[in-house]
Amino acid sequence: MSHTAHIPSHRKPRQRASKSALRAGVAGGVLSTIAVAGAAGPAQAEPVTQTIEMPTITSGFSTAVAASAQATQQVALDLETQADEDAAAEKAAKTAKKAHAEAVRKAEAKKKAEAAAKAEAEAEAKERAERASRTAERTTLSASSGSSDSTGSSASAPSSSSNVSGSAASIVAFAKAQVGDAYVSGGTGPNAWDCSGLVQAAYRTAGIDLPRVSQSQSTAGTQVSLDNLQPGDILYWGGAGSAYHVAIYVGGGEFVGAQNSSTGTVQRSLDYDRPTGAVRVL
Fold first, then answer.
1. Which of these, 75, 110, 209, 218, could form a disulfide with 236 (CB 3.0-4.6 Å)?
2. HSE on the CB side for 266, CA within 13 Å?
């Protein structure tokens, strides 16, 4: 006898033919109903829900992210350091360029100062030589003037175009001896003059005291025509009594005057700057 003879079977008993027919009819009816409903209108689709599973971050991935962040931070630090170094180099270059320009400027200034000092020394030496020459000329003039006054004989003014005697010779010679002196407002000598200071000093050599300013000097004597001038006459520019400039007529159609700060004391033709009038004091 088989070991499984008494074990009951787990299979379900076969359904009867009637029950199978009934189920087939029900199924057919349901399918027919669904077909009719589908023909009547669209079926409502049910929403489909899908669950997406997110990957799980493992400890190895976290370590990689941390390493990447650290590397990025290091790159940023390196870039910042490079930028600081570049800025420092640029600043150093600018400082060096500025220092070089300053050194060049100082060298040029020193060179100019040395040239100016040399020129000044040469000018001073020349002025001393001219001053010595004028002093010697004045000494000779004083001696000649004294001799003329005591003997009554006439004396000729140096480099004059006509013979001038007496006090006029002294005045003309003194005025000519100052040619080349500087013009200084308010100057009364011995090496710097203004216009009226020169005229006053020239007349003082002849023992004549004139007023100090040009306005008063322009009325200190007799008014004379410019066509009838004599050496020693006072020329003036502006009105008589309101003159703004004076000089001394030295003969030969020329005058000597302390003109301005640009020209200093000069000897010029009357045509250089035609005067307004003249007075004769002698």
1. 218
2. 11
Of 211, 259, 231, nearest to 165 by C-alpha is: 231
pLDDT tens digits, 207-253: 999 999 999 999 999 999 999 999 999 999 999 999 999 999 999 99
Q: Where are the domains of the chain?
A: 75-153, 157-280
Length of the chain, in residues: 282
Tokens of 72: 């990025």
pTM of structure? 0.46
Q: Dihedral through CA 189, CA 190, CA 191, CA 194, nearest 10?
A: 10
What are the pLDDT digits (tens) for 4-50?
Answer: 455 555 555 555 555 555 455 545 554 555 554 455 555 455 555 55
| Phi, psi of 238, deg, nearest 5 | 105, -170
Q: Quickly name the fold that domain 157-280 has.
A: endopeptidase fold (from Nostoc punctiforme) (3.90.1720)
Q: How many CB atoms lie within 10 A of CB 167?
A: 19
Spatial separation of the C-alpha atoms in residues 241 and 233, rounded to whole Å: 16
List residues bridging with 279 in a β-sheet.
223, 234
Candidate from 2-16, 122-136, 249-263 with smallest mean pLDDT: 2-16
